[in-house]
Amino acid sequence: MTNKHKRPINPYLILALAIVLPGAGHVALGLPQRGFGFAFFSLLLALATWHTAGPEISFIGRSAGGLFVWALSIPDAYRIARLRYETWMRDNRAA
Predict the structure, then answer these.
(1) CA distance 64 to 22
(2) Cβ proximity of 53 and 62 under 8 Å
(3) pLDDT tens per residue, range 73-87
(4) Is the Cα torsion angle 23, 26, 30, 36 positive or negative in sign?
(5) pTM over 0.85
(6) Distance between CA 65 and CA 91 in Å, rounded?
(7) What is the pLDDT of residues 13-26, one digit of tens each?
(8) What's the mean per-residue pLDDT of the chain?
(9) CA–CA separation, 91 vs 95, rounded Å?
(10) Which of 7, 18, 36, 50 is least enclosed, having the fewest CB within 10 Å?
(11) Does residue 49 contact residue 67 with C-beta atoms inside 8 Å?
(12) Residue 23 falls in which region: left (phi positive, over 0), alpha (psi -120 to 50) or beta
């Protein structure tokens, strides 16, 4: 008996996409609303902290809100990809 589902994208590729661009890993997983949500809130919070922080604050400090959301999106995308991959592997071993 063969598995009807095709092989999911390698979780490490999803991890790389998530690191390069916020939300890209989610979009590659077929979760565009979640991905665009992460991208939108990364940009929104980066702009909010940029405008509220003083000019003496570093670039990282001024965009910390967006970087925080981006950092949250990375393990989220990887976790979803890893769960899908491991489920696929388990189903194929049982078949």
Answers:
(1) 14
(2) yes
(3) 999 999 999 999 999
(4) negative
(5) yes
(6) 40
(7) 999 999 999 999 99
(8) 93
(9) 6
(10) 7
(11) no
(12) left
Measure Cα distances from 87 to 13, 39, 78 in Å.
17, 27, 14
SS (H, E, C) 11-37: HHHHHHHHHHCCCHHHHHCCCHHHHHH
Contacts of 76 (CB under 8 A, 6+ apart): 26, 38
The residue with tokens 């393990």 is: 75
Residue 46 structure tokens: 């980066």
Which amino acid does the sequence have at 11?
A: P
| Phi and psi based region of residue 15 (left: phi greater than 0; alpha: psi -120 to 50; beta: remaining) | alpha
